[in-house]
Amino acid sequence: MKQLFTLSLVVLLSSSVVAQQNKVSTDIRTDSLINKWMADTHTPGLALGILKPGQLAEIKTYGIADIENSVPVTDESVFMIASLSKQFISFAILLLEQEKRLSLTDPAAKYITELPDPLNKITIYQLLAHTSGLVRDPENYHPYDKQTVMDVIKSMYTIPLNSQPGDQWLYSNAGYFMLAEIITRVSGTPWDTFITNRLFIPAGMTKTRTGTVSEIIPGRVAGYNYTKQGLINTEKWIAIRPSGALVSTIKDMVKWDHFLDTTRLLSPENKNLLWKPAKLNNEAPINYAMGWYAEPFLGTPRIHHDGQYPGFRADYERFPNEGLTLIILSNLDNRSLESLAIKAVGILNPKLTPPPLHIQVAVPEKIVAGDQKIPIDITIRNQGKDIANSLVEMEIWDESGKSVYKQQAEQLNFNATAPKQLHFAWSPTKAGLYTVNIGVYGPRWTFSYAWMTNLATLKVQ
Length: 461
Hints:
This protein has helices spanning 2-41, 86-98, 124-129, 149-154, 173-187, 191-203, 250-262, 268-273, 338-348; strands spanning 45-51, 58-66, 71-72, 79-80, 209-210, 224-227, 230-233, 246-248, 293-294, 303-309, 312-319, 324-330, 357-362, 374-382, 387-397, 403-414, 420-426, 432-441, 448-460.
């Protein structure tokens, strides 16, 4: 018995050492990825939150929050989180629905009674899922003026819908103005006060709030844009837009993710509605739920959203079957964080590592300027895992590196066992040397599986 105990202890200690070594290796690879990304994109500062099953949440911070005052990013740095704000509005709507104060199938006009036709036909469900037909942003939204939510809603009265409510998916910030107004009218309190009292306080989120320009917000991060002249301060919007109004810290966002998993404020059925893909009128499913995108990644369920605001980017990734969450906040608005997030997720969980792609391009040997169309045949071999709903773009560059032609193929599925054949074409108008470059991307160009240059040379006579 004593020998057995000793052997068990040795095995336990060995396993602990291996686990620690793996974590150190993962930390080094993650830090290397983040630091390279920041250098390549000129990102001043970034905060990262990681939640994995059976482990304490991990927060990492990098770089500078305020360049002019040499303030580093910390876990208390307050970033604009842009469209990550939408998930809080959708949660609040579901909370009111659970309390039987509204129904998702109600027309918005039941609560905003002055809505004219055809806005009075839009339901709350359609607003949440971006199937309302509303424009992305109201034409009369003025970010440098103080506007009430109703001022912005009224500006939409005369703008035609892009489609009949429920017929198509079209991302609409305008719809979340209407949802905020509904929260205000149904609850009897301003929408942001309702969310603070019912969500932020129970979740322990002490720094999350609307991000007004005039008020003093301790720890506020400065936002930047990178130009040919270098980093510059970005414009500061005065108007509060419910679709992207909130500021938060990485510490608060980690608390929120834990709250999502553990809260009983919503029933399991209603909580799942947050992440259940919505449907159009014809019952066709879409890749958006309620304030979240819901689409698989490498065959694994993925719940996510990104955000952009002048000077800021944010990305929030949840892989529920893997128990993995990754949240990134940054103070540069030039580049989406989604590709970075996907690469980081692959380091944290090898199952979610994008597979390597082998791309071959075949072109004619003899090409004459003025030829109607020359064939460009592409073969893509997926060396590992199936990839669904992808996009391939071919770019042709001249000798100076300038893009002279682009062609895309969308909604492609790559099978791990069979190559994908694509047939593109180009009509050259000028003699010279040109190169073929291929990019493979996720849905809506949101992240890159591969970008390969100089895959073939076109000699045009």
